[in-house]
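Lab intake sheet, docking and co-folding queue.

SAMPLE TYPE: protein with bound small molecule
LIGAND NAME: NAP
LIGAND FORMAT: SMILES
REQUESTED OUTPUT: full 3D complex as structure tokens
PRIORITY: normal
SUBMITTED BY: R.K., bench team

The fields below were copied directly from the construct record.
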Amino acid sequence: MKKVVLVTGANSGIGLALCERLLSHDSQIHLCLACRNMQRAKAAKSALLVSHPDADISLVRLDVCSIKSVFEAAEEVKRRYERLDRLYLNAGIMPNPQISLKGFMNGLFSRNVISMFATGEGLLTQQDRVTSDGLQEVFVTNLFGHFLLIRDLQPLLCQPGHVSQLVWTSSSNARRSAFSLGDFQHSQGVESYSSSKYASDLLSVSLNRHYNTRGLYSSVICPGLVMTNLTYGILPSFFWTLIMPIMWLIRLFTNTFTLTPYNGAEALFWLSTQKPEALDPRAKYHSMTSGLGNNYTLPRKMDIDEEMAEAFYEKLLQLENRVRKKLKSEEDELDAYRSYLHQIE
Ligand SMILES: NC(=O)c1ccc[n+]([C@@H]2O[C@H](COP(=O)([O-])OP(=O)(O)OC[C@H]3O[C@@H](n4cnc5c(N)ncnc54)[C@H](OP(=O)(O)O)[C@@H]3O)[C@@H](O)[C@H]2O)c1
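RESULT FIELD (auto-filled):
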């Protein structure tokens, strides 16, 4: 039976490059592209079929920012497949990014200059918004929608005698200082991206605690700095092209400037070649590109407190309970209204 691999946010950037690399490595997998925009999803599938004409690729509509869409997508996936071997939790957003000029100038003349460029520390802020489900958009897109997807796909992911793998695309911008348990959706701050990525690091650790005995393993990666739609949202593409020589130079010192989606997908791809049971649950696996352009994966210990991870997990379960109840009562109300209309017709 073919291995089934599902990638969220597969239609562009790192997700699309990952799909390309997975198919080049193993043409026998079934690849499911989970995307919110079906036109872009179809275009991605066509592009993949050009280089891999025999590839087995399907599409599923998934807007991770919408609770209803997540549940519908999970139902669809369970209807279609009997197994799910790998789930890449890759879709992500950084809405309305603003660069702090003051932070930039301070960082430029400090010892942290390279780390500032590599992690965006002190540089970036975002403007978040509340979704129609009443949740913070960045939190639900980058983390909570994916959490619900995993929870709903448990019957496929946790099968007796079978090992499955979750892989989160986190970031070096995931900083503990941006996250607080008291405001885990980050409704009060301006670093929702950083907070949501730190939340994915925490969640991965607690998922391992809760699911390893059931054959499900979770890992976290950082793709490095990659030129994609996300980075073009921070600064226009011509600006990035302009400073490319500087970035090539910085790459000699940090190797975290992976720059292309292919290089950025290195750690995601590398994990697919490893035994999930043998991976370090507390490590973040970084895509690295050397000054000479060689790719490799480097594990680094994450700054995680197990108790905090556990407390966060409990909070996510409570929130899941609340959103399921809310959705159920909305559906009940709709049903009652429909039967009322039926009666008066
Ligand atoms: N680029 C970097 O330097 C960098 C660094 C660290 C981490 N990352 C992470 O890498 C991941 C991939 O980003 P990227 O850089 O490849 O940027 P990208 O090209 O913008 O890809 C993001 C993908 O996520 C999808 N997406 C966004 N919101 C979604 C939603 N509500 N439902 C379903 N899909 C949604 C996008 O779909 P649409 O095309 O429909 O928008 C797109 O396919 C993200 O998690 C990002 O945070 C990127």
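REVIEWER NOTE: Residues 166 and 218 are 5 Å apart (CA to CA).
SIGN-OFF: pending second check by T.M.
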